[in-house]
Amino acid sequence: MNDLMPVAVFFGSIFTSNILLANYLGMCSFLSVSKEIETSAGLGAAVIFVMAVTTALNWLVYNYILLPLGLDYLRFIVFIVVIAGFVQLVEMIIERISEGLYAALGIFLPLITVNCAILGVSLFMVIRNYNFINSFFFGLGSGIGWFLAIMAMAGIRKKIAGSRIPRGLEGAGITLIIAGMMALAFMGFSGMINVT
Asked: Taking all residues of the chain, what is their mean pLDDT, rounded to a whole number?
């Protein structure tokens, strides 16, 4: 997969291989946080940043430490440690630099650590044998795709908040139906660019 252009990987990870709507990774925080547009935007922005940086960091760790030492079977554990460590570092830096931003993002940063989409992107990067540039753009595009999906869901949920919904579909039921429709809509892009 090293022959793919970074632009194709970037746009493919946003639309045709959307980490949330094509692979269903990161659904827990997607379903729970997408009730409000503001909180969705905060979590989405944090996911973009963390996903892009940790994918690049995990590529470096995998290719320059794990592979040369023959420890590639430890990638799951190491990737989780890198993600958790990076999120903790970002949390400490934000707390020291801007207490207002830390208060606004307080709950979002711990949520990112347990977001399986972050780990999934790092694992897909290894499976697809991306080079460093493609891995970075894959992480960045996947974060943007996740952001677009959660913002669309938050907007739709806000729009239907006052609507009459059958009692059996209220809450999680209608949310999952909307997520399925969004996944179908994103599948419409599959003939354009496919990075799988």
From this structure: 86
